[in-house]
Amino acid sequence: MDTEAQPTTDRDRSSHPDTPGTEGRSRFALVSRITDWLPGGRITLTLFVCLVFLLLLNTFVVQPFQIPSGSMEQGLRIGDRVLVNKLAYRFGDQPRRGDVVVFDGAGYFGDADYVKRVVGVAGDHVVCCDKEGRIEVNGRSVDETAFLYPGDSPSAVPFDVVVPAGRLFVLGDHRSDSSDSRDHLGSPGGGMIPVGDVIGRADWIVWPYAHLTHLRRPASYARVPAAAEGAHG
């Protein structure tokens, strides 16, 4: 007689004394002990959990940033709050021409965080200006009228640069009121921002509510050829 497939006996069942709900009751008891210990009980615990969640969100996912100056007008105005997507470049993606980025300017622009628009990426040949006064990237003129501050020229300062590997050439949209890569061409790094110092991409204006806007990459940069195709000099 095959004895390996005998029906489960009462003794077999008794070897697993835990009953459904025991684990849940244990967790509930732990939470109860914590709330009994904390001043304010459940309210304090709830606030603490929310605070931890917000800190994790702010550290790894999205961070609010207040626009401190008029260098990105008229799209971003002084006092606007933008949400910076900190995951935008975390999984292999790189900043692209036209992105509005927030970066740590320590050692390059100053001991603060800055917000600018990416005009050139690694290998790009960026020149100002062409015969019509426009910025030229890899031999292609860029129409910036969609975001450039009304009345501003693309640049009152001529430049002709090739962006090194791992760096970005950045400009403010309000060119006449922006300290950016043009002003630091003679500084360490040549005014180019290390990609590693980029905190994230500004994706939304969220405050004041009247300025609520999704910040999109301008289509004018999509027509710029890759550096290998159009770079020269």
Give me the secondary-structure topology.
Layout: H1 10-14, H2 22-37, H3 42-60, E1 62-66, E2 81-85, E3 100-104, E4 113-120, E5 125-128, E6 135-137, E7 140-141, E8 159-162, E9 167-171, E10 193-194, E11 198-207, E12 213-214, H4 227-230
Antiparallel strand pairs: 1-2, 2-11, 3-4, 3-11, 4-9, 5-6, 5-8, 6-7, 9-10, 11-12
Helix content range:
10-25%
Question: What characterizes the major β-sheet?
Answer: 8 strands, antiparallel
Count of helices? 4
The string of secondary-structure elements, in order, is HHHEEEEEEEEEEEEH
How far apart the termini lie comes to 90 Å
CATH uppermost class of the largest domain: Mainly Beta
Which band does the percent of strand residues land in?
A: 15-25%
The oligomerization state is single chain
What does this structure look like?
The protein folds into 2 domains: 11-60, no CATH class; 64-225, Ribbon (Umud Fragment, subunit A). The chain has 4 helices and 12 strands; from the N terminus they run H-H-H-E-E-E-E-E-E-E-E-E-E-E-E-H. The strands form 2 sheets. Strands 1, 2, 3, 4, 9, 10, 11 and 12 form an 8-stranded antiparallel beta sheet that branches. It has helices at residues 10-14, 22-37, 42-60, 227-230, and strands at residues 62-66, 81-85, 100-104, 113-120, 125-128, 135-137, 140-141, 159-162, 167-171, 193-194, 198-207, 213-214.
